[in-house]
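Final report, results section. Input specification for complex C-07:
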Amino acid sequence: MSEPQNTGPQGPYPPSAEMLATPVPQAQQERSAAELRAAWAPPKGWRYVTAVNNSEIGLWYALSAFGFMLLAGVLGLLIRLQLALPENDLISADRFNQFFTMHGSAMMFLFAVPMFEAIAILILPALLGGRDMPFPRLSAFGFWCFVIGGVFVMGSLLFNAAPTAGWFMYPPLATQDEGPGSDIWLLGLSFIEIASIAAAVELIVGALKCRPPGMRVNIMPLYAWYVLVVGGMILFAFPPLIAGDFLFELERSFDWPFFDPTRGGDPMLWQHLFWIFGHPEVYIVFLPSIAIAAMVVPTVARRPIVGYSWIVLSAVGTGFLSFGLWVHHMFTTGLPNISLGFFSAASEAVVIPTGIQLFAFAATLIAGRVKMSLPMLWIAGALAIFTAGGLTGVMLAIAPFNWQVHDTYFIVAHLHYTLFGGMVFPVIAGIYYFFPFIRKKMLSERLGRWAFWLIFTGFNVTFLPMHLTGLLGMPRRVFTYPEAAGWGWLNMISTLGAFVIAAGFAVFVWDLLRPKGAQQQMPRNPWAAGTLEWSHNIPAEYWGARSIPHITSRYPLWDDPDLVARMDAGRYYLADSPHGHRETMVTSVIDASPELVQRVTGPTWITLLAALFTGGAFIFPTFHMYAPALVSGAFALVCILYWLWTSTARPPAHEMRDAGLGLSLPTYASGPKAVGWWAVWITMLGDATAFASIVFGFFFYWTSKPDFPPEDAPHAAPELVALAVLALTASWALTLAARQWNAAGRIGRARAALITAPLLTAGGASALTLSVQALEPTTHVYPAIIWALMIWVVAHALVGLIMQLYCLAGSLTGKLTPRYDADLWNITLFWHFLCLTVLVAGAVIGLAPGVL
Amino acid sequence: MRRDPPPQSDPDRREFREEAESLWRINLAPATWAAHFVTSYAIAAVVCAKAPALLPHARLALLLATGLALAVILWLGWRAWRQWDYRTTGDYTNALGEAEDRHQFLGHAAVLLALISAIGVVYGTLPVLLLESCR
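Structure output:
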């Protein structure tokens, strides 16, 4: 075996005070700074769009999400204009439906969730004293998917073809809707959901593996805790919606009756899948915004946060409890009262952790010496509005009250109070707080106060009366109402208020975008904050941290007065880039002890191309153009393979890298030490959740329908199902064996396994496809869901097959060796999940019909 | 095959392994709540859809499940309380960057999560106690 004996870190760690106090020679400082600057320089001119730096991608992401938010806000104004007077005919009923559907969809899918991703991508590496996210190209790919999908979905408004069934797309209205509106919603937003999952993977791995040395989990910034929780929630919340979209689109395109009760389907399944996504989603947008408050509050109180552990409790606790609330959107659907009781109880319980974090903020402010700043003003507004929204939430969690106000303007008032207070205000606070970090300029104090008071007043004038409008009986989503209803004056007040909000946003946007060239250079740490992002360089540098510090406390800038000077001098880790590579440090999950120097990827066109072709694969089917979609999908696959092959898990030229302070770190890792392995693990957790949602659908039909499966229904051929399960399990076993043989240096055997395994995979996938040929999916929901399970497994098996061939090619060309076997570790992990999927699907397709 | 760890860091590695488990461990009490919640929802849904007459038995079973869940949470909470070790150290915030602080912090967080999970389980049992029929 040629494997080196020791592939772990070598040298002293943690660094001693003496080592840190040793000055760095001036010549060395200048040389290493020049190296870093060259390695991290963003591309110039028209190549600027190929940038993948988190500072660029995060900024584009945030600006696009903000742009979509302004568009959706204009839709809101048009809605308010139409409703200002009774029997108004400013816009037609159909346009009105398009506008409220897109207002809600865009605010949720194109603003709230992407804004979290944008801000996190922008600031998380800096909070962690890092260089960049672990997978910059994945961020770029996610961003371009988001922009393409968002423009496509919003663009449909211009062609009068936008979806009209409301932002939660209930069947049968949405399944039977004429025109491409519903398809645009389903495919366009599924595409964006995939971008969200990509961002979640990136952020979780970033928070777990890319912290600076010494930043143990008990001292990491609270924002990182929130990012972890929210990333985890995305993994469990978005996949049910993706599974629902998959079933929904099969019904729209091929008439498979998942939600059609005349053929055994059930529209309630969509409601369940949508709200299993939809309710946690509220917390997915709320938690990261309140995380901004958790950064701003200690700074303005000029003391550490009170109750760090309590805030961690509230983030994690809310993350869990928020999954037990989804049926409170379905209180009027006739579920058994005892079931409603469970969800009502959980909806009340979630108030406890939510309240705890607000009390922790209040306690910090009381215990500190508050210096009222503009960001704090917005946080204070947020807390006031959110508390009001939370109180109506407690009312709504009580099922009998909910029955009274269901689908009235009371709901509209409640949700706007929670979202403005829980998301819009804290995010604007975050923009005021972090703008100096992002753009190295200050926003105007005077304009900021104008914007705040306009938006705060306008918001309450608009939405406070809506509680009353709702209690008086005005249903939501009506395009007009008779004068006799008596709601006219309330609606007029709301409309006037909406324009005050708009005026406030105009001031804010002007402040944000006005040229600030004449402004004098701002101080480096304008708020006198204690966290690492304020060690940034002014004027801006693209390298993230000048050197990656060793961290020993929660507020390092307050606790270690020498830290910034030492970072600037390049005293800490990775202060140089001797080979001109972009690199960041990978540390252990719990204690952040140094493990690896990870090479990260630089500017490229390939992510843009991959996103364009992936977009084609989603957008063409909207118009039933399946051949172009397939071609586009194939090109996307080629692009992604090229991207992976050329820039991931390549054998490094140098085994070890001198990281500074005497520490020498390996440059390659495979298995659980590698960031790629974690990314696969996290992705597959989300994938398994989507699969579980489809299996849930199967059993849901069984409980909700007396004749599922129907008595005389043909079933899948049991011997073919068994054959498929056997072949695919054998393929999994061979993949695992290939990894072990390869690591033991028996390359010939490993290659033989990687030749046999894809054949078995192909055979297994074919057998499973053949096993269901006697079933006709358009006739009844039973054959349809069996087909859906089959398609899911076969599609994953094809991906698994490509992975096996990829590793075979790697082994034959020297990309994959016994020492450099990260690819094989990653695909084995994929195959573990695939094997589990196959076993469950085989049991449901082959065994369940006999048992039920 | 995992490669052998470098010999010089064996004690650290043991410590790390123990603690790698504990980032999961703070999730165990909430996961118990989730299991209790899903069980309650699933049993109620299936019984009400297929055999409403069995509801009294289902309620009894769910009360037993509550007892089990609370016992598990109590046990987890007690272990976490010992890990936090507040009575001996008197350190409430664990704000420093030592391994001991991290260890106790994770205990503290787990204690709090056990508390909220227990409240969640009790809340989730109230419908079982108060409602005697599916409708």
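The mean pLDDT of chain B is 84. Chain B touches chain A through 56 residues (CB under 8 Å). This concludes the modelling results for the funded period.
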